[in-house]
Specification:
Layout: H1 4-7, E1 12-18, H2 25-35, E2 39-45, H3 50-59, H4 71-79, E3 87-91, H5 97-106, E4 110-113, H6 121-133, E5 138-140, H7 148-158, E6 165-173, H8 187-192, H9 195-198, H10 203-219, E7 223-231, E8 242-249, E9 254-260, E10 271-276, E11 279-284, E12 290-295, E13 301-304, H11 312-315, H12 328-347, H13 362-380
Bound molecules: 1,4-dihydronicotinamide adenine dinucleotide.
1,4-dihydronicotinamide adenine dinucleotide binds at residues 17-20, 23-26, 45, 47-48, 70-71, 91-94, 96, 114-115, 141, 143, 187-188, 191, 206.
């Protein structure tokens, strides 16, 4: 295992599982790792079909002896190398997250795992317990808490600018699955609509978990109970493609969460509004460089990313002056910068600097899976109010 002294003089070495040719999120991870020069990608098992994986590895200049047939071979091949990877990024469909994360954790690697962290609550509990019992870091890529203004919004709520929170409205509508594209050869839609590969949630697991995490991250509120109504609008589809969830938060605030894969006209319409007894906040991911704040009886104020008076947690995640658009890739890179700092701090037995604080971990992954579980249970029970097992 590489010591802290060596770590201070080099980038973290990253391996990737999934994310091969034609895959979606693996490419975003690769962009994100490069922005801050904190990681170098040196190994991978990039595709479920090994030959395609090797061809892809070659195309991005991964050494042939570090392109592996599968994740098991990667664990074996990496674990005894003097230049072994520090962490693995898991960019595969949901059902594979648990066995892959478990194998790398047990071999002593740090893990960066896509959401939802697992497909079952039992697996999420087991993985979180394993992470806690190890000295390793497990990050979960809840992308949207990488945005600077999300950190500013969180700080505004915490310092009381909105007063007591009354209402939380969060929505994540998409249109891309408005027809049965899973039956027409769309591989990404195919696994997302297969309960064995996706888990119990359709839209609620895929994007509802993002919305739920974002609402909790900004408000600091914990769900006390929820009531859900799921729908499957596309005939033949096996999982929900639309979800409405009412949430009662601790302290009496009420939340409403909408996730949809059939919302025609919506590209990536993640939007959060928070209303307190002194003011309100509104933010939308398609315009992430502005945050709207309205005090009771006052005019709306547009808060811009990059402004000097933002809180340190927002400033450290902002790269360019206000007016230059920063977006999704930069937010994802902020997550990776945070993971790098969290990993280094842990190895060096020190507290992380600002960028490494409040990064999403296996605890958040577990809450996300518990949310999906409670939503599906509530729906199946006719919308009964249920308490998520982990909040
Ligand atoms: P995808 O279908 O585009 O790509 C999956 C990739 O994993 C493919 O390259 C496939 O060959 C590979 N793969 C599958 N099984 C494998 C295995 N056992 N070993 C090695 N490689 C394997 O999927 P997509 O859309 O990139 O989603 C992947 C994960 O990322 C999912 O868990 C999804 O929920 C999550 N995701 C997260 C987003 C975020 O904003 N954080 C956005 C989109 C997806």
């Amino acid at each position: 295992m590489t010591g802290a002294d060596d770590l201070a003089r080099r980038r973290l070495r990253l391996g990737m599982v999934g994310g091969g040719e034609g895959a979606y999120i693996g490419g975003i991870h690769r962009f994100a790792t490069r922005l801050d020069n904190a990681f170098e990608l040196v190994a991978g098992a990039f595709d479920v079909r090994p030959e395609r994986g090797h061809a892809f590895a070659e195309s991005i200049f991964i050494a042939r002896d570090r392109s592996y047939d599968d994740y098991r071979a990667m664990v074996e091949g990496e674990k005894n190398r003097p230049d072994r990877i520090d962490a693995v990024a898991i960019c595969t469909p949901n059902h594979t997250h648990f066995p892959i994360a478990k194998a790398f954790l047990e071999a002593g690697f740090d893990v960066i795992c896509e959401k939802p962290m697992t497909t079952t609550l039992d697996d999420a509990i087991a993985l979180h317990d394993l992470a806690e019992a190890s000295s390793r870091f497990v990050g979960v890529t809840y992308t949207y808490c990488g945005y600077p203004l999300i950190h500013h919004a969180r700080a505004m709520v915490a310092r009381g600018d909105l007063g007591a929170i009354r209402v939380v409205q969060v929505e994540y509508p998409l249109e891309w699955m408005a027809t049965a594209i899973e039956a027409e050869g769309n591989a990404q839609a195919a696994w997302r609509t297969d309960p064995k590969l996706s888990g119990r949630g359709g839209s609620i697991g895929d994007i509802g978990t993002h919305a739920y995490h974002l609402a909790g991250f900004v408000t600091g509120l914990k769900a006390q109970s929820l009531s859900a109504d799921l729908a499957t609008f596309v005939p033949g589809r096996l999982l929900d493609d639309n979800a409405h969830v009412m949430i009662r938060y601790d302290g009496g605030a009420r939340g409403l969460l909408w996730s949809s894969q059939v919302a025609i006209g919506c590209s990536n319409g993640l939007r959060l509004r928070v209303f307190g007894d002194k003011g309100s906040l509104a933010w939308a991911q398609e315009d992430p460089n502005t945050l709207s704040y309205t005090p009771l009886g006052g005019a709306p104020e547009t808060i811009k990313r990059g402004r000097e008076d933002l809180v340190p947690a927002a400033k450290v995640r902002s790269r360019t002056p206000p007016g230059h658009p920063e977006g999704y890739i930069a937010a994802f890179a902020n997550l990776y910068a945070g993971f790098a700092e969290a990993i280094r701090a842990r190895r060096e037995a020190r507290a992380p600097s600002e960028i490494g604080c409040n990064v999403p971990t296996s605890a958040d992954g577990l809450k996300g899976v518990a949310f999906v579980d409670a939503v599906v249970d509530s729906h199946e029970a006719g919308g009964h109010w249920l308490v998520p097992r982990f909040v």
